[in-house]
Amino acid sequence: MGIGVSAHRLAGAVAALGGVGTLSSVDLRRHHPDLMERTRGLGVGAAAKEAINAANLEALTREIAAARERSGGRGLLAVNVMRAVSEYAPYVTRALQCGIDAVVVGAGLPLDLPELAADHPKALLVPILSDARGVQLVVRKWERRQRLPDAIVLEHPKHAGGHLGAAKIEDLDDVRFDFDQSVPQTLAVLRAAGVEREVPVIAAGGIRTLAHIRRLQDLGASAVQLGTPFAVTTESDAHPEFKRVLAEASDDDLVEFTSVAGLPARAVATPWLKAYLKVEPRLQAVAHAKARCTKVFDCLAQCGLRDGKAGWGQFCIDQQLAAALRGDVKRGLFFRGRGALPFGSQMRSVRELLLRLLGADGPIAPSPV
């Protein structure tokens, strides 16, 4: 959902209907022509990096305000910040200063999140983890800081899209991630810590139907998080071609690979990704540290391409995700979770999607324009 897929239009629409609408914090300046113009042709160096990071923080401020207005004060607004991005702390701090309801952090263990949010005790802090071991570590570390997670997103890496919560691709099928094991084991960890009633578990990854939601609730999950079904709604902030690519893809069209962030990832096998995967072994064989970031602003704290990390991805993730946001099928990287979507290849509204997930029977009339 990053690089602008879930921005103010989608997050605001979800919140307006009583859900938790989540803004992805990364490189939101791409939705603001004036900020893009301000950061065009800056050259290289510390000043250019500082200017781009400042523009992205301003974009985050604008997007939170626009989402709040669109929500009409209903539901909750969250911001997702990858722990792996270099500006993780500034993004968290700015979102909290803007009055965000919740901060959701994945792609790494957010052990320092309680300190970052110390001046904002009412903000909800939600780590994304994949198994009970990770939950136990976070709960223990946070308890020492007199803070508990306000909820835990338990994401299944075998089914989710984008960056996945496993150490390597070979681990994606590990049974410890199966909800039948991970949900009860996580609840046991919380019960042992005496906080089972205080920390709800939110299941994520490949959830598509009311029956699936009910099964997860039977296991003990309090809620669910969905990505791909919302990414293809009419309110999604991405280009229509982005939505079409995700909506028309089947599980057979998806591939797993190692991202430039060093994490397993899942995406649609588009022309660029197929071409990249063919040459990836050669690129990794000659990986070496570069003098500077391809896009100047060092979006990741550790980058396979910039830092020359053999075995990690060797491409510019910001560049490829930005192309996907624009609907550039030939050059874009299109993250997608597994599983048939609730409306197949159709693009429908957030309202229609929520009604379908809540069990509306029969055909759902499209929302009035």
What does this structure look like?
The chain is an alpha/beta fold and 369 residues long. Helices cover 38% and strands 12% of the residues. It has 14 helices and 10 strands. The strands form 2 sheets. The protein has a 7-stranded parallel beta sheet. The protein has a 3-stranded antiparallel beta sheet with strand order 6-10-9, with no helix packed on it. Strand 4, helix 6 and strand 5 form a beta-alpha-beta unit.
Layout of strands and helices, then pairs:
Blueprint (H helix, E strand, L loop, with lengths): L7 H9 L3 E5 L8 H6 L7 H26 L4 E7 L5 H10 L4 E5 L6 H4 L7 E6 L2 H12 L8 E4 L6 E2 L15 H14 L8 E4 L5 H10 L3 E3 L2 H4 L8 H9 L5 E5 L5 E5 L2 H15 L18 H4 L9 H9 L24 H8 L12
Parallel strand pairs: 1-2, 2-3, 3-4, 4-5, 5-7, 7-8
Antiparallel strand pairs: 6-10, 9-10
Helix pairs in contact: 1-3, 3-4, 6-7
Label this structure with key terms.
14 helices, single chain, 369 residues, alpha/beta
Shape: globular
Query: What string, H for helix and E for strand, traces the elements in order?
Result: HEHHEHEHEHEEHEHEHHEEHHHH
Low-confidence stretches: none
Task: Give the helix proportion (percent range).
Answer: 25-40%
